[in-house]
Amino acid sequence: MKFELVDRQGYIPDLNYGAAGQELSCFIPNDYPFQQVSYHNGEGEVIIDKHTWHFFFTQEGIGIQLIDGVVTLKEAEHLLLAVKAHIWGETHQQVQIFMAGVTPK
Q: Is the C or the N end of the chain the one with fewer CB within 10 Å?
């Protein structure tokens, strides 16, 4: 399942990437222990609570994809809201969360 966090104004704050091996900490809220699996050009995969998530940039915002594992929609929403607050702050109201998929042809 893919999700996108999109600011209506197209604003993505500057991300402060972590130290080597923890670069993706800029996406992960502080209260979420994680293990970074891969990193390349500002994007990559992490394991959070035995689930593999891919963080990447889209044309309009930040993409988050569940690669491995099963979560409820509530669990996914909890993570997405935490990532949103971590990146844009608690008071920023312009960010929308979308489920993303491939449009049939």
A: C
* Angle formed at CA 26 by CA 34 and CA 61, multiple of 5 degrees: 115
Q: Please, what's the b/e burial string for 92-101 (b: 16 or more CB within 10 A of its CB; e: otherwise)?
A: eeebebeeee
Rg of the chain, C-alpha, whole Å: 13
What is the C-alpha to C-alpha distance for residues 79 and 21, in angstroms, rounded to an integer?
A: 21
62-102 pLDDT tens trace: 999 999 999 999 999 999 999 999 999 988 888 999 988 76
Predicted TM-score (pTM) of the model is 0.90
Q: What gap in Å lies between CA 54 and CA 99, rounded to an integer? A: 14
Using DSSP's 3-state secondary structure scheme, residue 80 falls into helix
Decide if 6 contacts 95 (C-beta within 8 A). Answer: yes
